[in-house]
Amino acid sequence: MKGVFGIVSLLIVLAVVGLLAKTQWRAVDSAIAARHSEAASEAAATTADVSGLTAAEQAASIQQKARDDVARALQQGAERNTGADR
Fold this sequence. Notes:
Helix content is 92%, strand content 0%. The protein starts with a helix and ends with a helix. The protein is mainly α. It contains two helices and no strands.
């Protein structure tokens, strides 16, 4: 009888863990999908900004945007570190 209760309780625990894992994976998948759609929209905006320019002008524009993005990220990191020091 103890063995039956042990197996049944193990199955119940496995079912609960499975349900929790399933909900976590859904949350992770939706977050990844949101990031992908955000990145795609940013890429589309970059492409739209350079339409009508020559290839050299497009390259220069994309490079400048990348420099601006890196500078902004570095600034945010510096601000975050300054806030953490307090």
